[in-house]
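Working notes for the structural subgroup meeting. M.R. asked for a predicted model of this chain before we commit to crystallization trials. I am recording the input and output together here so anyone reviewing the notebook later can reproduce the run.

Input as submitted:
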Amino acid sequence: MPVSDMKAMVLDRCAPIETRPLKLRTLANPEIKNRNDLFIEIEACGVCRSNLHMIEGDWKDRDSPSVLPVVPGHEVVGVVKKAGAGARRIKQGDRVGIQPLFSSCLKCGYCKSGKEHLCDDAEITGESVQGGYAEFIVASEDFVTPIPDSIDSPHAAPLFCPGITAYKAVKASEPAKGRSVGIFGVGGVGHLAVQLAKMEGSRVVAISRAKKHLDLAKKLGADNAVAYQDSPDQFVKQLKKEEGLLDSAIVFAPSENAIDAAIKSVKKGGLVVVGVVGNIPNFSAFDEKTVRGTVIGSRQDMADLVKVASESSLKVVIETHRLAEANEVLARLKNSEVEARAVLVP
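Returned structure, recorded in token form:
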């Protein structure tokens, strides 16, 4: 294969993952177009449930994907093979990561206040621009994060979506010693949130339907693990019996019932952080509870998380698969057969 070509998994049209909508194709390599662009050889790309939603067409009303055909994948790690003439911070040979925030305008109020992930003109990796289910990618040095040698690429990749999502949500939950936090959903994001909340000194209660996820949470340091019941009221009754009401809760389970249960599980005046797409049912203002949304994070948040990961015992639980197996991996994710995070390696 000529060096000007690469292999990539391409989505031409949204369809159920069981129909294998991703096709392994040979594409021309992306090219450096701007002075601070980087040509990156991808070493690992995490597989996210939001990739699944996009591929199956669940998020068409959110304009995702906004381009077709598209190469999905937004938690990317690779080595810089060539740097544009204007690149100053990153050089050839550096290993870097790319999160869902591919770029932003850098001029609006959000960008100027360090909240560029909220920019109205933000580009999303693997949705509005080509992503990481491929052998190569081009990205701006302004939006990549250097990765230290202490973290290998397959374990680093999940930091760039579930990691930053968990980090931002835990911070938003206002963790502190003596405060309890419930984490609804212990998968790719939740297993990291359990550990990050423990680092803040909180009492962590993990909530999941699956015993394997509850067992994983306990293994990673959760103080308690409670099985989720189909009825939010039934679950809260069990939680009160085992643990009592919580100071805060974080929701990563993509379920309206889970959001409802989380709101009911916190004390009056408590805080609920919603880190998924979902409606908020049965909310009473008279309990003075706060519901707060959160999404990925800024470039500084990403750098801070990589520093935490490199200096702590944060354990990223992964399974690795070849790039060509993306359809099968996403099907396993849909069926809740992935313990924590799946990672594609070209």
